[in-house]
Amino acid sequence: MAAPGPVAADFDFRLPDDRIALRPTAQRDAARLMCLDRRTGAVTHRTFADLPDRLSPGDLVVLNDTRVFPARIFGTKPRTGGRVELLFLEEGAPGTWRAMARGNLKDGDALALDGGMEANVVGAPAEGFATLRVDGDLGTHLERHGHVPLPPYIRRPDDARDRDDYQTVFAQTHGSVAAPTAGLHFTEGTLKALEARGVRTARLTLHVGPGTFLPLRGERLEDHRMHAEPYAVPRATADAIAETRASGGRVIACGTTVTRALEAAAGPDGHVRPGAGATDLFIRPGYRFRIVDGLVTNFHLPRSTLLVLVAAFAGRERVLSAYGEAVRARYRFFSYGDAMLIL
User: Fold this and answer.
1) Phi/psi class of residue 129: alpha, beta or left (left: φ > 0; alpha: ψ in -120 to 50)?
2) Range of the domain at 106
3) Residue 39 — φ and ψ, nearest 5°?
4) For residue range 48-59, what is the model confidence (pLDDT) as tens digits?
5) How many CB atoms lie within 10 A of CB 261?
6) Cα–Cα distances in Å, from 94 out to 82, 91, 114, 261?
7) Among 240, 233, 294, which residue's Cα sits nearest to residue 264?
8) CB of 14 within 8 A of CB of 152?
9) pLDDT, tens digit, for every residue of 2-12?
10) Alpha carbon distance 42, 44 (integer Å)
11) Are residues 268 and 171 in the same domain?
12) pTM for the whole thing?
């Protein structure tokens, strides 16, 4: 009989509340960088500005250029005065949006969104999601009146600083409700230093959805279902990956979002196929990586799909041991926290 696979409890760890970063470092690349050797488990401590020195000429770093929009907004039910919090996710038919909703909503409810726009609930909300028809240009309205969709563990209101802080310096393609947080540490100086080192960069787009906030459902990993997220891999990026691998260089994914996009776009022959798609790929221990040779990532939540992915890449015991050392060494965790390089 086969041994049972890992369960959610295998990816738990104790994290003091004061290790959760509420703000990023003043200088993005001044964040700490834990370097983990996934073959030996050896750990060294650097700063993110040292990243280029840890890579080799001929390596390729792949970045996610998605851009976060201020997707969170509050609304009032004119009939009752009840308040509702909405996180708009994506537009389906013109004027019809899917949103995460917190508050008591039912089919046909009217809402007055902060700033004056009207919305109506279409169909019965289910499992915390609702479909709304909006009257007007919601994108422009959110840019003016919406809030930066900070993760729920950052227990403070968003403010003007977050408009810049919660956005990578290479953000370009509008559409995410969460930042690809490993990319938050890069500066223009980091990118230039990589180029000077002979390390190329390439970009793709994966729009981060609400699944990044959701914990594992149940104990058995195989029972968890990921929310599908749209991605696009440019031909230039697919070509750069093929050239890097042919010349013996390593493909370094900046973040779990890039990892999922590249692995989802990989064909049976191990080559990345350019083009657009959507992925609900749940990478967990036992997964055979076809494209990614190294990973830049942040420190993730206990029992999260992101931590499971990192454990699949570097080994659960080694990752949790490194996390234990990070707690003892007072690293800063989660979206605005410090970084890890796994090679």
Assistant:
1) beta
2) 72-145
3) -85, -40
4) 999 999 999 999
5) 28
6) 27, 7, 21, 27
7) 233
8) no
9) 566 789 999 99
10) 7
11) yes
12) 0.95
